[in-house]
């Protein structure tokens, strides 16, 4: 089997797994390494096993997919997701939300409470309730354990699907056109009974998700409204939206969702300021030529309510910053920051403008005076970054030691700590920080080698050496645990 064909098969398998579609066995000559599967989803995997699998696949995702590691956007989607999770039932795991740089409309969820959305959703979600409806749907896939249920049905026919294929979602994320083409072909040949099973999962996620949406204070009509957009795009386009390949949308889903929303108390909800600022930031900093921050959007916002007008000005400042027209960017942003001096969106962008103009001292002075959110992760990273750029690595390291302890899964903290350590001349600590970044990407062999180098450069018998050696032991245990999920 050629590499190209193998990749196409793996992409089709993983996409069908996320949607609940049963596919033929890819290879029948390999033993099933997964736990013995019983008659219910609860007998398929324990919650601890799901968490371990989720950890493995998140690391693969970081290594191979275009994740947006923007602290502000990460904070926003996690706060939005957490708001929904607080109103969900049967929550058995922590939830983590990730944003991928991809203009296609799509979202997916997998083991361990991990939910991934494409940046393209911001393009087509006209309001925050519509974006929340997609997250609520994916959260419901997790709480209803649809992936575990699908695993149960797959055990006899496709033991490898859930071991290696799940990680191959990265192929579809990195090369969506090729991946989704293979997926579309596979789905076209799938038996109708298997498709019905998928629709059952989707309808259940709709039914549970719309309840979560309403309880969280969002407009339940947003779910059928967004589905209607997808249906119309599919009807008038030769290529359906990518989300419809992994989340089939028959008329029954749309009508059922609309009927349920009509039975709920209507809730007129305005989009939050954070949603509008996040949308401006996604388009302005991470949009492609097909999805930029357009004059039309800014003009429309300029004619809208106060929140939209503010988003328009923020968007203009971003566009000037991206064009390296720093004085113009500062002129647009300064009135906003003066009116809201503790606003993290404005502080973050003004810090970037300062650093772009080699004014680290000015950024440091401003951030040190912020009183409203001294423990904000975003502001901690901003100040640490300003200290690094301002040639104050010791001050940066004081922040980053606390930050990486509290946020060990954020690569931004480890990257800054590596820079600060290098500037301070701490070679061992630099290597250790780089090792943690590699470990987050699933590159455990390389991480262990760097930690070994850090240990050898530390004083014999020192606390630092003991810490590095203990971390090596932890990563080796992680390697052993992850071997059962690696491709064979």
Alpha-beta content class: mainly alpha
Number of strands: 3
Number of helices: 24
What is the radius of gyration? 24 Å
Sheet with most strands: strand arrangement = 1-3-2
Tell me roughly what share of residues is in helical segments.
55-70%
Beta-strand content = under 5%
Name the features.
single chain, 488 residues, mainly alpha, 3-stranded mixed β-sheet, flat, disordered N terminus, signal, protease, zinc, Protease_BepA
Describe the structure.
- This protein is mainly α.
- Among the domains are: 215 residues, no CATH class; 86 residues, no CATH class.
- The protein has a three-stranded mixed β-sheet with strand order 1-3-2.
- A hairpin with a 3-residue loop joins strand 2 and strand 3.
- Helix 18 packs antiparallel against helix 19.
- The protein is flat.
- The two termini are 14 Å apart.
- The N terminus is likely disordered.
- One of its GO terms (molecular function) is zinc ion binding.
- Functions as both a chaperone and a metalloprotease. Maintains the integrity of the outer membrane by promoting either the assembly or the elimination of outer membrane proteins, depending on their folding state.
- It comes from Affinibrenneria salicis.
- Belongs to the peptidase M48 family. BepA subfamily.
- Its main location: periplasm.
